[in-house]
Amino acid sequence: MKVAKRKIIKIDEDLCDGCGNCVLTGPENAIEIIDGKARVVKESFCDGLGACIGECPQGALSIEEREAEEFDEQAVKAAVESAKLAHEAEDEPQSGDCPVALRGTGMGRLGSSKLSGRRRRTSSPSAGIEVETAPGAAQPELSNWPIQMRLAHVDAPYYDGARLLIAGDCTAFASPAVHQDFIKGRITLIGCPKLDERDSFVEKLAAILKAHDVEDITVLEMEVPCCSNLEAFVRQALKMAGKDVPVKSVILGIEGEVQG
Q1: Do 200 and 135 reside in the same domain of the chain?
Q2: Do 164 and 220 have their domain in common?
Q3: pLDDT one digit per residue (tens) for the chain, 260 residues
Q4: From CA 136, how far away is CA 154, in angstroms rounded?
Q5: In the chain, where does DSSP find H-type helix?
Q6: Residue-number span of the structural domain to which 22 is assigned
Q7: Beta bridge partners of 6
Q8: How many CB atoms sit inside 10 A of residue 15's CB?
Q9: Which of the ends of the chain has fewer CB neighbours closer than 10 A, N or C?
């Protein structure tokens, strides 16, 4: 990668509060929130024009001139287009809603999966898999479907008065206690700040928040850097929806422990 003296964004970490507004307005993945602070992680994706500066409420962003990787406009365009195509391919049907959510009663609200005192059996004939869960074992607490943000149905009635859980894709795989500790009693939506197209994610969540009065939101992130923007997505959606809802952020370690 070629290096040249040019204008590039500068971040004052003493002023930065990690709100993530700059992440949402800057070029694809040029800035990420790491350890609660905004940092330039891809110099070649920063054009130095400062579009993100006006979105910083703390005044932590400025432009400086220094040696940096040259801006790679083609790489930025390719990254944006790749994310767009991936989103469109995964967002079938075109309405962005999961057909399963429209079938039957409850608009995708799941009934109780608990079978008191009995052995619960699930199977996948095509894969030749059959699993039995012994009585007394932890049961799933998921109460809505679909859970992927891109497939969520904006008009589903179970959002009314709900306690929302916005969780990183990987969280449920990191700890067996996620169902009991976080999903139970909440309506769950999941996504990945690294893989999901941020504008679509924020716009879908904003539409849900605007159409329904939710009680509160818990954001469950992994401790890995790529998950650290999830809270910023949620706060941007709240701002877009014009809603003031309590937000609690929880970070889960890769070994399943809740970070202090």
Answers
A1: yes
A2: yes
A3: 688 899 999 999 999 988 877 876 665 578 888 888 889 988 898 888 887 777 788 889 999 999 999 988 888 788 777 766 655 555 554 444 554 444 333 445 554 333 333 344 444 443 444 555 556 666 888 989 889 998 898 988 999 999 999 999 999 898 889 999 999 999 999 999 888 888 999 999 999 999 999 999 999 999 888 788 899 999 999 999 999 999 999 999 888 889 86
A4: 36
A5: 21-25, 73-90, 171-174, 178, 198-211, 230-241
A6: 3-90
A7: 66
A8: 14
A9: C
Sign of the CA dihedral with 189 first, then 140, 223, and 84 last: negative
SS3 assignment, position 9: strand
Say if residue 119 is in the same domain as residue 230.
yes
Residue position matching structure tokens 């008009």: 155
Residue 125, preceding bond cis, omega within 30 degrees? no
Q: Position of tokens 């399963």?
A: 100
CB neighbour list of residue 22: distance below 8 Å, 6 or more residues apart: 11, 31, 38, 52, 53, 55, 56, 61
